[in-house]
Amino acid sequence: MSDAMSPSPAVVTVNACKLTGSGLQRQSKLPPAERPKGYEEGFDADTLWYDAIQKRSRLYLMCPKLNNLVSKVRSARWWVDERQVDFQRIRFYRFHDVVELQLPTHMQARTLTIEIDSWLGLSHIAQPQPQFLKGLNTVVVMNKNNSLRWIADFLRFHIYHHKLEAMIIIDNNSAFYDLEDLEDKISSNWSSTILSSFCSIQIRRICAEIL
User: Fold this and answer.
1) pLDDT single digits (tens) 92-124
2) Cβ atoms of residues 72 and 38 within 8 Å
3) Which of 16, 70, 91, 110 is the most buried (most CB within 10 A)?
4) H or E element: which one contains 204?
């Protein structure tokens, strides 16, 4: 792969907002009788959104299922860089929701504040980077405790048979090794870039550029 096509290594942290100090918690809609063992311990009740991303004059908040928090989000007040902005809508999906806010034209947003009752939540705002993997044959995979050797074999297979050029790994809190071990295994053959770390839900993403 030529240098012109190679994405530059970068570290990007997702822009999550927690409900800490609000007195609120996200509640599950799954009936207690249907919850498997360990469900309550693993349920994320404190994250309001995982990331905030601007696209032109819209701000998109990537949220878990808001469930009981929908009315609170709809009635909240919002500021971007200390300028009040308008709530537009919530898009509801099966496993997540997306909150949309309207931004002033030509504004490059940096920080977002939400006010619910007397509580304030704050996060930074990401700008889109469509050029990062533009034109690259890329695979997106999820991983939990797969062996590091198997991951390396997976990469070699897809490079040889499918001309793979880049990869994003979503690591769902693997317990058999840490992020550094996973990164080292990939970077022993290819350069790797840590894209983000979801500390609140312990999901980590690695983007590997395959040379």
Assistant:
1) 999 999 999 999 988 999 999 999 999 999 999
2) no
3) 16
4) strand 203-209
Give buried/exposed letters for 82-107 (b at 16+ CB in 10 A, else e).
Answer: eeebebeeeeeeeeebbbebebeeee
The phi, psi pair for 32, rounded to 5°, reads: -55, -35
Domains of the chain, start order: 17-124 (2.60.40), 133-209 (3.30.110)
Q: d(Cα 207, Cα 1) in Å, to the nearest integer? A: 16
Q: Are 183 and 206 in contact (CB under 8 A)?
A: yes
Alpha carbon of 176 to those of 19, 139, 143, 182, 211: distances in Å?
30, 23, 12, 10, 27
Cβ neighbours of residue 142 under 8 Å, at least 6 residues apart?
A: 169, 170, 171, 172
26 close to 45: Cβ distance less than 8 angstroms: yes
Q: Which two tokens stand for residue 107?
A: 């504004």
Helix (H, G, I), strand (E, B) or coil at 208: strand
CB 96 within 8 A of CB 67: no
Q: 87, 74 in Cβ contact below 8 A?
A: yes
What beta strand segments (E) does 17-102 contain? Answer: 17-18, 47-49, 51-55, 58-64, 77-80, 83-92, 96-102
166-172 and 138-143 beta bridge pairing? parallel
Report whether pLDDT(82) > 70: yes
pTM exceeds 0.90:
no
Report yes or no: 104 and 58 within 8 Å, Cβ to Cβ.
no
